[in-house]
Every structure is written in structure tokens, then in C-alpha cells.
């Protein structure tokens, strides 16, 4: 029997959306991470985030099919200098959001956390000096039970 994708294990888009809402609430309540949203954010932020995570975790192209490209996502997170404390606080918010969203499977929680740590500290932090450094052809990285999919 084939193991389900992370997207399927989350209960599909509804499960991912529940986690996105939980994470967004946590970061807005955090005095350090909320700074990233202090200039406003898209009114459909959690829906867009859930679509992005859904795609990254083995679901259909919900983000790139509707909202934009991976390069655009990385550009939004680039050119802000290094922000290690904010990254660590965002990771802590994600850990807590996993509990808030009632993700009970320990292996699934660990996989999702591994993804979030990688995405936060490597993918979204790769271009701290300028958004114009981001290549135009990045693809949404896929994540599985074994980590990043080549």
C-alpha cells in the first residue's frame, strides 16, 4: 500500500487551510513575527498560504495555478536582510499551530515542521540583500515523508 502524500495525510485542502489559519493567528499575536505583516497583507493571505502549502505537500497546483509563481513568493520574502530571531519565532509559531490545528500524527507533525524550518531558514531566506537576486524560474519545492523531493 502506498503512503498518502502529506497533503492527503492533512485531510486535503481543508486540513491545510486549518493549519494556515492557526499559523497566521499565532504570527499576528507574536510581537516579533507580526512585524512582517505590519505594512498589511493580502486579504486572502491564509487561503493563498494554504494553496501554497497544499502544492508543496503533494497536492494539486493550487497556488501556481491561481495565484502566482514560486519566484514571486520568494521575492516577497527577499531583500529584508537577515532576520534569524524572526525566523525562529515563526518556526515556534508553526510548532504551536500544529497543535492548534490538532495534527495528532507525530510523524506527520515532524515532516511538516521539517518542511517549515527548511522553507523559512533556507528557501525564503536565500536572498536577503535584494529581491532582484531571485531567479525568474523557481519552482514550488515538493516535500514528502522523506524530505525535499528532487
Automatic annotation (TrEMBL):
The keyword Glycoprotein belongs to this UniProt entry's keyword annotation: no
SUPFAM superfamilies: Globin-like (SSF46458)
Pfam families according to UniProt: Bac_globin
Keyword Ribosomal protein among UniProt keywords: no
InterPro entries documented for this protein: Globin-like_sf (IPR009050), Globin/Proto (IPR012292), Hemoglobin_trunc (IPR001486)
Keywords, comma-separated and alphabetical: Heme, Iron, Metal-binding, Transport
Record's protein name: Hemoglobin
Native organism taxonomy: Bacteria, Pseudomonadati, Pseudomonadota, Betaproteobacteria, Burkholderiales
